[in-house]
Amino acid sequence: MDDCKLVHFDQQVAGHDKLMLLSTNDLIVVKPCKKRELDFYQDAINFPDFQDFIPECYGTVRAATEKDLKLLDKSDILTIFIFNLKILQNLCLENVLHGFTKPCILDLKMGSLLHDQDATDEKKKRMIMHSLNTTSSKIGLRLSGLKVYDTVKRRYARFEKKYGQSRTVDNVLEALLAYLFPVSKYANDVENYAKHIEDTITEQDIIKEKIPTKYSKWVIECFIDTIKEIRESIIEHPNLRLIGSSLLFIYEGDRAAADKTWKSMLEEDDLPQNKDEDDSRLEDDELPPKMCDLRLIDFAHSDWHAERDEQDPDLINGFDNLIALLESCLQRQSQEKL
């Protein structure tokens, strides 16, 4: 514990940029939040069928002891929260980026309603206008943040916030294509919105080629399947009120890492299916690499206590539109050999 401190989490693509990591590993992110978000995760325990769709919650970090205070005190970011613990919690969540070498990240804000019932009149008006002036009100989703890795040029591109805000119904598909195919014309066409971060890797054996078509196709199909599962689960829980929540998309952007993961997946498919549960080849701290992941995140304005018999139709419409958009991405990929 004495060698452990909290450091800034530099992979966040949307929100208030206050996530942190423990310096000793990247398994857990620490998120300052209000009690409502903590309550959401605690209530979610009562809905185990929904657990796979959100990051696992490990509780909170509190300055309850001298050792805890010492840990929190090492982070300048948390200083303000140490003296305000009655209002804010420091939530410990699963880092869903763990297992990726060069994660490509997309944050999509879902639904058209962006404020809860506790918002001030001023904030309600602001959020309503924000929804009306973006794709939120029109198709029930909005691009909030985007970061992709170009494995050919060996650099990250982090797209500015105004890129998502400026997307329209007519060009949101191109934005998804820019995310899914970072070496394509779609990504190059919007480079004026991107801040580039050059890679420092110098090893000669790293493959400088785009992600193979079969990998990308598999990833998009996985995204579609997972979104359909989340959609059905949300419909089955009309009491679940999601306001301002996002879908976080992640896929492996490094060619060498993707090749290794693909090979591992093929080998796993060839294994006998009747293995004993205790015949595990991987320890808890040796998780297999990931090709992609997709989770619901951001529950500062969400809860499980809506008194209704039917889910928010605008939210479901957003999921339907997203599925249609990703299916169009598959068609474009096939037609244009992306």
From TrEMBL:
InterPro entries, alphabetized: IPK, IPK_sf
Acidic residues bias locations: 268-286
Gene Ontology terms describing biological process: inositol phosphate biosynthetic process; phosphatidylinositol phosphate biosynthetic process
Gene3D superfamilies assigned: Inositol polyphosphate kinase
GO cellular component, one term: nucleus
Pfam families referenced in this protein's UniProt entry, alphabetically: IPK
Taxonomy, superkingdom: Eukaryota
Keywords, sorted A to Z: Kinase, Transferase
Entry similarity comment: Belongs to the inositol phosphokinase (IPK) family.
Stated name of the protein: Kinase
